[in-house]
Amino acid sequence: MEKWARVDILKSYQDCHRNLIMSQSAQIINLSSGGPTGESHENPEQSVISKFVIFSFDDRLIFVYGSVKEFSYHAGLVKRFCDISGIPSGWIRKPDLYGIYADSYRLRGGGWMEEKPGQKHLRFYGYSTAYGPFDPEDIVYLFENHENVSGYQITIDE
């Protein structure tokens, strides 16, 4: 079953490639070295696939995503985010499970994101084997409450 939510996402396709986008209650972080796939997008009709995890910290949700070419496991996203944020963490089972040792951060699940830039569409689906499924309401909250949004449609597969 698909749940559709009409949400404005990013002001323009170029804005999608910013590494850090913040608002008061939501943060979206792209950990890929290039755009979402880690490479340029010469064909806007081509789908772009990324993995993502969602953290909570105090009253903020943090959406961290990266190219499946760079992050074969969701744990890689968690590790890189913890490394750049200075969050106490470490490998529990390498390469697929990386743990956070700070009580103030909580992993809320993960999944996959498909972007169709030419169609201004984002699709969220699947789950993280290590961190569990994401809450669709988190996706809606993250993107609805973001101040730099417009024009994208979101599909959440449950």
Could you describe the 3D structure shown?
The chain has 158 residues and is mainly β. It has a single domain, classed as Pyruvoyl-Dependent Histidine Decarboxylase, Chain B (3-Layer(bba) Sandwich). 13% of the residues lie in helices and 39% in strands. The protein contains two helices and ten strands. It has helices at residues 74-85, 136-144, and strands at 2-5, 20-22, 26-30, 48-57, 60-67, 89-93, 97-100, 105-116, 121-125, 153-157. An eight-stranded mixed sheet has the order 1-10-9-8-4-5-3-2, sandwiched between helices. It has a two-stranded antiparallel sheet with strand order 6-7. A hairpin with a 3-residue loop joins strand 6 (89-93) and strand 7. It is globular, with a radius of gyration of 15 Å. The N and C termini lie close together (6 Å). Residues 1-22 and 35-39 have low confidence and may be disordered.
Summarize the structure.
The protein is mainly β and about 160 residues long. It has helices at about 75-85, 135-145, and strands at about 1-5, 20, 25-30, 50-55, 60-65, 90-95, 95-100, 105-115, 120-125, 155.
